[in-house]
Amino acid sequence: MAHAQHPDPNIYYVPPSSKWPVIASLAMFVTMLGVASWINEIAWGKPVFFIGLAGVLAVLYKWFGDVIRESLAGFYNRQVDVSFRMGMVWFIFSEVMFFAAFFGALFFVRQFALPWLNGEGDGVATHALLWPNFAAGWPTNGPADIGGAFQTVPAWGLPLLNTLILLSSGVTITIAHHALKAGKRGVLLTFLGLTIALGALFLYFQGTEYIHAYRELNLTLGSGIYGSTFFMLTGFHGAHVTLGTLMLIVIWLRCWFGHFSKDHHFGFEAVAWYWHFVDVVWLGLFLFVYVL
After folding, report:
1. Which of 233, 236, 217 is nearest to 225 (CA)?
2. Domains of the chain, each with CATH number or no CATH
3. Sign of the CA dihedral with 40 first, then 43, 46, and 48 last
4. pLDDT tens, 227-265?
5. The pTM is what?
6. Burial 61-99 (b: 16+ CB within 10 A, else e)
7. 183, 67, 249, 159 alpha-carbon torsion, rounded to 10°
């Protein structure tokens, strides 16, 4: 919570000690204990997971509420604003590295592992003793009679539609940002609301795509290296879109309550940065997962 005295704009604000980090750690531990137990079919795993998840959400609500109140009270001067911006930049950089690891796994398999298994380079087909009928090609999950035959998701169907949806959402959030800086509250709320709707529509179509892949294409997480990389990359991206959409909803509510001004609205900017990052990652996914 903010101190009671009036903030000094020339002093870097340091918040008092908080109980939320400890409570958040405990809630996350309970959540992970619950999900691990649930996966292993332990009876109490499912309720423990939801109890932990509720605790995490409650901590987020209270902790962010404290930060918002401190911001509205004027405790965050320009120095603090710079710190927030640096923190968000490093957070997005960590997310870049997160996805780089999965893209790296995809590229390694396609450019090195498969040719090596096929005997390219050393002239020795290293798969011969295990899978005599193996042929290096992409997509692959080994011989069809072992890994199970599957079909890929056509790039020019739902994936293309979702690409257009996310690109459109990047435009709408940019318009909303300009409206905020221009003091046009109605335009701000309208285009920010459109961005939220587009994010939700993307998630709906991705869910539809997953159902189609499992039911009609026999493409699952068990479909070898292609299935695992496909669902890991698109699934984690979908999780980020979900988080981004929730963040946009919070920002829309804050805009509705008038928490931002023309000159002080980093909370909005941080979410906009994150959303543009999600857009860029999807373009890479569309190209390297669906098209190539």
Report:
1. 233
2. 1-76 (1.10.287.70), 87-291 (1.20.120.80)
3. negative
4. 889 999 999 999 999 999 999 999 999 999 988 888 888
5. 0.85
6. eebeeeeeebbeeebbeeebeeebeeebeeeeeebeeeb
7. 110
